[in-house]
Amino acid sequence: MSSLARAPEAAFEPLLANRLDEVLRVEQRAYAYPWNHANFVDALHSGYQAQMLVADGCVLGYFVAMKGVDEVHLLNITVAPEYQGQGWARVMLDALTIWARGQGVQWLWLEARVSNLRALQVYERYGYRRVGQRKAYYPAGNGQREDAVVMSLPLTT
């Protein structure tokens, strides 16, 4: 008998308006400056690729991505705090990459807070490269703003 805990079996489901309350609860626990209801509604109405990773009815995580002409921009990727560090971000990045390749795009793009070292490490391990910085991109405490690291992943070989 193994004493290792089994990871929950998870599946992707479209992120739909009827699940936004659950997603918002995860978003608010995961970030100091979370997306709000209107951000998600706008993304869904715009037809962006929005997927949830679900196990036993629980939202483990989700991502929202916007397709452009020859690129996909990852707008939000979140793993619920209680499931972080278990490889679910990579599962979602894999799903995003497979979808993006199927769309025939050549690049994936994203931004991450300069202070979000954990996310930057995940993206770099996945193959994303730092290509720039956006000054004062994210809200921060006390009316301040935080820079974003711009990262890209080429999908052509």
Offer a concise description of the structure.
With 157 residues, the chain is α+β, with helices and mostly antiparallel strands.
The whole-number mean of residue pLDDT values reads 94
Note the overall shape. Answer: globular
CATH topology: Aminopeptidase
Count of discrete alpha- or pi-helical segments spanning 4 or more residues: 4
CATH superfamily: Gcn5-related N-acetyltransferase (GNAT)
Report helical residue fraction.
25-40%
What's the count of strands? 7
Q: What is the C-alpha radius of gyration, as a whole number of Å?
A: 16 Å
Please give the domain count.
Answer: 1
Assigned CATH architecture: 3-Layer(aba) Sandwich
The fraction of residues assigned to DSSP E strands is 35-45%
Order of helices and strands: EHHEEEHEHEE
The N- and C-terminal alpha carbons lie at a distance of 43 Å
**Structural class given helices, strands, pairing?**
alpha+beta
For the biggest sheet, the summary is: 7 strands, mixed
- Flag low-confidence runs: none
CATH class: Alpha Beta
Give, in spatial order, the strands making up the sheet with the most strands.
1-2-3-4-5-7-6
Description:
- The protein has about 160 residues and is of the alpha+beta class.
- The chain has one domain: 3-Layer(aba) Sandwich (Aminopeptidase), CATH 3.40.630.30.
- The chain has four helices and seven strands; from the N terminus they run E-H-H-E-E-E-H-E-H-E-E.
- The longest helix is centred in the middle third of the chain and has 15 residues, at about 90-100.
- The termini are far apart.
